[in-house]
Amino acid sequence: MRFIAIGTCIKRQTTRVFISAALVHTLSIFTQQTAADQPWPSHKTFMIKKKLAKKQRQNRPIPYWIRMRTDNTIRYNAKRRHWRRTKLGF
């Protein structure tokens, strides 16, 4: 395992921290200042990711057996959402 020395300045006192190379990427998430410095497209919190997953599951056509059970009175999912036309708002 490689170790990399990273110097951080806290309240005008320089402290040297030794961390493993595997944790450098995790540490860089907290130290980045702007979105332009990020080498990856986006970050999602766990709650946002759960909401997106739920909306993805809801956005599907109705099963065929529902059409048969309701004698074709329910023909389509009225709450279908297109990814470009209708945004979720969060």
Automatic annotation (TrEMBL):
<dbReference type="InterPro" id="IPR000077">
    <property type="entry name" value="Ribosomal_eL39"/>
</dbReference>
<protein>
    <recommendedName>
        <fullName>Ribosomal protein L39</fullName>
    </recommendedName>
</protein>
<comment type="similarity">
    <text>Belongs to the eukaryotic ribosomal protein eL39 family.</text>
</comment>
<keyword id="KW-0687">Ribonucleoprotein</keyword>
<dbReference type="GO" id="GO:0005840">
    <property type="term" value="C:ribosome"/>
</dbReference>
<dbReference type="Pfam" id="PF00832">
    <property type="entry name" value="Ribosomal_L39"/>
</dbReference>
<dbReference type="GO" id="GO:1990904">
    <property type="term" value="C:ribonucleoprotein complex"/>
</dbReference>
<keyword id="KW-0689">Ribosomal protein</keyword>
<dbReference type="InterPro" id="IPR020083">
    <property type="entry name" value="Ribosomal_eL39_CS"/>
</dbReference>
<dbReference type="InterPro" id="IPR023626">
    <property type="entry name" value="Ribosomal_eL39_dom_sf"/>
</dbReference>
